[in-house]
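A further point concerns the way the authors explain their paired sequence and structure data. Showing the layout once, in full, would remove most of the difficulty. For illustration, here is how one protein appears when written out as sequence plus structure tokens:
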Amino acid sequence: MIERDLCVRRVAFLLAGLAWLESAAFQRHAYSAEPAPRAEFTAPCAADATRRPDRVLRVARTEDFELDGRGEAPAWARANWEPLSLRPAAAHPYETRVKMLYSATGLYVLMDATDRLVTATMKEDFLDLWNEDVFEFFLWPDERYPVYFEYEISPLGYELPLLIPNLDGTFLGWRPWHYEGPRKPRKATSVTGGAKQSGAEITGWKAEVFVPYDLLKPLGNVPPASGTRWRANFYRVDHDGGTKTSWDWARVGPSFHEFRKFGTLVFE
């Protein structure tokens, strides 16, 4: 109990001091699409030490490069594809895979998915993108605290970046303020077999994203160096035909926010 109380105080102190949560940071954004089951919070990493994830992705280093939404930059040859698995009750047997690289300034993520229909109507950033076709990744750099970064992108190229404090299974998203310059991600999407527009019949789509470390500050363990480990997960959700199908890289339960089940990134 003493360890738990100390941990909660440390988390409260961290959140109170996060610049994102105040003058140059993240504004509160209601986020409750996937309520997480209540989880017992213990001392920093004490429980995680005996429950290491079985999914590991080694992330190669690269120089910075431009995005085209198709993943055609030569740098991507340094990364291997990692498949995502269909989650229970899947309705559409599409395939999904991801790649990841890192540089001196940020992280690169590439997603490639087969599909039949662009089920995406939202045409603004910071909307509830998870209710339509979407690719998501979660980054948990510092396991001492239950605070992680979430990024969502739709086939049409709209985004939702959030900082998530997750305390005892209760979580809300905080959206970025002063979201510009070196703090703003670069992103691009593309489709194959059809037009990049709502309702179009296609054969697949890709999303390419660069997340600058400046956006992740002041989370601990950022930026990564050779040998650094972060916890992370990748997801995809598809809503073709009004039926939801989802994929994950590291298997979680009912909620994507079961962060202690995330896989591990190992930076080379």
